[in-house]
Design brief:
Layout (H helix, E strand, L loop, with lengths): L7 H10 L48 H12 L6 H14 L3 E5 L2 H11 L7 E4 L6 H8 L3 E4 L22 E4 L11 H11 L2 E5 L7 E2 L2 E2 L6 E5 L12 E5 L2 H11 L27 H32 L5 E3 L6 E3 L4 E6 L9 H10 L16 H7 L2 H6 L7 H7 L3 H9 E5 L7 H16 L1 H10 L1
Parallel strand pairs: 2-3, 2-4, 4-5, 5-8
Antiparallel strand pairs: 1-9, 6-7, 6-11, 8-9, 10-12, 12-13
This protein binds pyridoxal-5'-phosphate.
Length: 461
């Protein structure tokens, strides 16, 4: 029988009879056993034909006509260092996000560092962070000279577990640094309540969450400041780039000076005699990067809508499959960025097929995917390395730099379990058609139906 005749709809219809759920189960004509629909097909990883051989949408998306014109104009003008185009990009991003100010910087990592430093967070301060994040979130805290304090992950939403934050607050705590990881909003309403109660600053790492919303308010605007990344894989790609947004004018003036070697806000770039008023570094983006940002910003809203639609559709197609547990969102989330489409994979429901073999099988079926972050971000050697630096030794008492003790205090078992079970699909796949999402569901079902033969087949090789 052809693959199409073993449709996902058939699977779910039959599944519901075995108690998996009724959501997708209309009238049922015949009864079939679960896990038989693809069983006659050879898995691609063992040499069979893949479910999908069509390409997925590529990234970044760039139209030579429309997009290249504005960048070429800038290049031909010959003004390449920070000037009017960067200011225009900042204005547009602030308008898009809904903040008074925006500063464009070289990347999201330095947007975080600059923000922390200008919040005067440093030696002796503790900053609460999640462990399910890109390393830059935590590196930024260490570079600022502060101590990261980890709060475990909510296993369903993958965000920092807001209910566990208060237990980690000490007299040294200065800030909470929630991350809207994978483009899904963290529990900001609860986090802001806690911050208010304990008089803490909040810096939002929205580096993966462009235009995601809680109650129709865009993330990055809840805390004192928000940071974004515009690196190539991101939804507004400039090659490299980042931004800080905030309504606090003084803070933004300081961030500006900091990003321009301490020269006062409002000064003219290139005026070498202006005099530097504060400690700073150089984080300026170029005019042509900003031109790329301005032209691609036109597509962001529509692409975000498509990603949300496709993610909801794909979720509905796979959520009934035993062993596949898709992400959950907090009730007040009104929009996501979906930097990744994520679910947890339970190998016991797939005849003991390991996650790594599942990922390889899925790739072989034509579905690009990855397992995401490694566990133990909270205890990896970079922290010990920071503790061994001259600066940390000068800033902290010896007891606080006892790495073994630190590791014990910062255990995050929920996060470790998530890191071992997560499966990520890439954001650009969500720009494909609805029918393409069915290929993902079909590939998962095919692997499920053949899990045992794949496990045995791979063991032999
Ligand atoms: C959650 C998070 N924070 C910070 C960053 C740092 O951004 P950048 O790569 O632009 O430095 C990233 C980038 O991937 C990220 O995903």
């Amino acid at each position: 029988m052809s693959r199409k005749s073993y449709s996902r709809r058939t699977f779910i219809k039959h599944s519901s009879l075995t108690g998996i759920g009724t959501v997708m189960a209309p009238k049922i004509g015949s009864v079939a056993k679960v896990n038989t629909h693809f069983s006659s097909e050879e898995p691609a990883i063992l040499g069979g034909s893949p479910v999908r051989s069509k390409d997925w949408p590529s990234w970044p998306q760039w139209s030579p006509g429309e997009n290249e014109k504005s960048v070429l104009n800038v290049l031909r003008k010959g003004v390449w260092s920070r000037d009017k185009v960067v200011s225009e990009f900042e204005k547009r991003w602030a308008e898009t996000i809904g903040t008074k100010r925006c500063l464009a910087v070289v990347n999201g990592t330095n947007a975080l560092i600059a923000s922390l430093v200008q919040m005067d967070i440093g030696a002796g301060d503790e900053v609460i962070v999640p462990p399910y994040t890109w390393i830059s979130t935590v590196q930024a805290v260490l570079i600022a000279g502060a101590m990261p304090v980890f709060v475990d992950t909510d296993p369903e939403t993958y965000q920092i577990d807001a209910e566990k934050i208060e237990k980690k607050i000490t007299p040294r705590t200065r800030a909470i640094l929630p991350v809207h990881i994978l483009g899904m909003p963290a529990n900001m309403v609860r986090i802001m309540d806690i911050a208010k109660k304990h008089n803490l600053l909040v810096l939002e790492d929205a580096c993966q969450a462009w235009l995601a919303e809680i109650n129709h308010q865009i993330v990055g605007t809840f805390g004192h400041a928000g940071c974004y990344s515009f690196q190539t894989t991101k939804h507004l790609p400039l090659g490299e780039g980042g931004a800080i947004v905030s309504d606090d004018e003084d803070f933004m003036d300081r961030c500006y000076s900091y990003h321009n070697v301490g020269f006062p806000y409002g000064g003219v770039i290139g005026d070498v005699g202006a005099g530097s008023v504060m400690l700073g570094t150089k984080l300026r983006i170029t005019e042509y990067q900003a031109a790329i940002g301005i032209t691609l910003l036109q597509d962001l809203d529509e692409q975000t809508t498509i990603r949300n639609k496709r993610a909801a559709y794909l979720r509905s197609k796979i959520e009934e499959i035993p062993g596949i547990v898709p992400y959950k969102l907090y009730d007040n989330v009104t929009r996501c960025a979906f930097h990744m489409f994520a679910f947890r994979y339970r190998e016991d429901e797939f005849n003991g097929l390991s996650r790594s073999d599942f990922l390889n099988s899925l790739r072989a079926e034509g579905i690009p995917c990855m397992g995401g972050y490694a566990p133990f971000l909270n205890t990896q050697p970079y922290i010990q390395h920071a503790f061994n630096t001259k600066n940390f030794k000068a800033m902290y008492p010896k007891e606080m730099l006892d790495f073994q003790n630190y590791s014990e205090q910062n255990q995050c078992p929920e996060n470790d379990a998530l890191c071992n079970e997560a499966v990520w699909l890439f954001q650009s796949m969500l720009l494909a058609d609805e029918s393409d999402m069915e290929d993902v569901a079909d590939a998962i079902l095919k692997i499920k139906d053949n899990a045992e033969s794949i496990r045995k087949g791979l063991k032999k090789t």
